[in-house]
Batch of 3 targets.
Target 1
Amino acid sequence: MLALTFSTGVVDAVGYLGLDRVFTANMTGNVVILGMALTGAEDLPVLGPCLALVAFVLGAALVGRALRRAAKGWTTACTLVIALVGAGLAALAGVTAALGDAIPVQEGATPPPAALVVTATLGLLMGAQAAAARRLAVKDVTTVVVTSTLTGLAADSRLAGGTGEGWRRRLGAVVLILAGAAAGAALLRWHVGAGLAVAALITLTSALLGHRRARTRPQEPEPARENTLL
């Protein structure tokens, strides 16, 4: 989950810096951008954030429905979702590499159709990942936002009179999404697809390791059933 948080930072850096200031995972950022753009603020994107929002919701809805009847924890269905997200990121990395200069959006310029397609697809994939992470229910690690994580870190800290439980996981999520964004920005200097390729590798590796861990974890014995007469 922490590895997926890092890859999300990479993806959002690619979206914001390479796709006309669009967040493809952090939907709070898109809502704020749209709010400012709708009041007449200059040079703020509208179409890209709208596409990312709609695609994110669609991806989350589809995966939420697919996992509705799945068992809690990491299941084969969760592995399939995360693997598909990784495969989608890998495909986008290949597409952006093939299209070259047709993808990056210059500030103030109209996004080309190819960039809008990449934006919508990334939103769909990140929505799917967020829905799978919600199903896994690792406390304060949603993989796509850290606001609630920071709130829990502060509110449960010893400074606030709490026990400080889970501070390493929470702090790790914050640091890793920060590091992911930095890595994505650095990779963008090389090519817009480089960050997507790294995110794809991390996501596919996470799917593999999560699946192996779930399969090797001892199963809890089923409770004994009492014989009853009908």
Note: Residues 2-214 form a domain with the Growth Hormone; Chain: A; fold (CATH 1.20.1250).
Target 2
Amino acid sequence: MSYVSRDQIERAKSLDLLTYLQMWEPAELVRCSRNVYTTRTHDSLKISNGKWYWWSRGIGGRSALDYLIKVRGLSFSDAVLQIEGADSGSAPTFTQSLQQRFSPARFELPEPNHTSHRVMAYLSKRGIHRTLIDYCLETGRLYESRRYHNAVFVGFDQEGTPRYGAIRGTTSTRYMGEAAGSDKRFSFSIPALGNGTELHLFESAIDLLSFCTLEHLADRDWRQAHKLSLAGIYRPKTEGEDPTPPAALMQYLQCFPQVNRLVLHLDNDDTGRMAAAMIQRLLSPTLLISDEPPKYAKDVNNELMESRRRYGEPSR
């Protein structure tokens, strides 16, 4: 570990993130409105009034030091030295491997395990029907990572190239993350068979699969309509900013221009209801939109689990 002095630490703590990015990484900084910025690498990370907050991960801070540690993954001493280099106007004397962590990440999915037994058991415990699990495994939309046995939900572009990976832990730790370099525009989805014109929207891949399971158990065709996960919570922009719909949703509508009806299945909480209202306001001039949150649960997976508890699985 590199040594840093108390004076270096105090100077690092005093530097705010906006000033740091303006001085050291101006190409990474994107202006959203008069007083609000984001970054090219993480469009859900907002910088305003001397603070920053990464909405998709639920973490934030004030200083550039907080950012380098929590977002970039640097050790405390390396983060201090990085700021020292920026503050002095000289390039930091880091190794090549450390410098590479500051470049936009190349998309890389976790190495797959030779089996998916842990993931299958985890999703079955969450109520997902084996038919859905098998479909996702067979189409490459789901697999088990080798190192931690996480569930990896893969998103593809229109050419069938993987562009996104949502990672969900299969243990009690409930880990949630994304593969390095993931492009949120291409989040986990299940396209309709044929020329479907209806799109159902969810906050997570597990909610999406839960809805498909409910459709399957009710003997309805779960491939009749398009299904899309937003890869996390969609939070409308703060007051004073021009609101924009979720990037994944807009990309999907661009790829499937025949879609003319949108069905929202966002969470039944304040954030989900606010997001649903904003999407309706922004897109109702061009789409027929129906807001259908879970009837007696917080999210669609909770609704599935409650339905299974109440009624069990129909015999086949």
Note: Residues 87-103 have pLDDT under 50 and may be disordered.
Target 3
Amino acid sequence: MANVNTSVEYRITIGEYSFLLDEKKYFLLDYINNLGSIRAAANELSFSYRTALNYIKKMESSLNVTVIETQKGGSGGGGSAELTEEGLKILRECKKINAIMELHREVNELEAELVDIDYPKGVMKIRMKALDITIPLNNKYKIGDRLLALISYDNIFIMNSPQKSSIRNNFKGKIVELILIDDMIRAKVDVDGVMFYSDITLSASKDLDLILGQEVYIGFKALAIATLKLN
């Protein structure tokens, strides 16, 4: 039975029509695609056949397309069902969004102030404590705005020495925590009082000889940072 998170929604757009598809409807499409039956899909999700039909009707009405094709009969009665080409496109888009969310489920959340905008270079600087971080230009922001910067753990690189590269954000810090999680090492690095988490492979950790208290350099691209305005 699916563990459904009802707070997750996917905005699906087909032509001029759009629809907010929550995880219940996403799983409904996924189970219909796998099981070939609306009734069987509804049973997996612990809601009624009528509820499943209402979800499908609302989806099709909002997007102005046919999402499910049904046929009478089939094993066990109740008819068979399969996703139309448009239904498969919707399911594929949801799977892509899910994959991206899984990859970026754990992120560093850093509150900062926007302190500089460089229009010719297309970048801005945000500041937290004594640390300045370069982020991409966003014309909706202005100097003094409070921002939340989001950086995925796997987008932060750890190095034993500073490297010359296209990465705009390079900082010296100290490892204050090392945790084994599945087949990954999660390193917590203190950079001037700002804490960054980085996930690296076991082999990379061994190559770098990482230990607690070790001074290292971390780096991440400006484009690896997503921001939200707080005020």
Note: DSSP finds five helices and 14 strands in the chain.
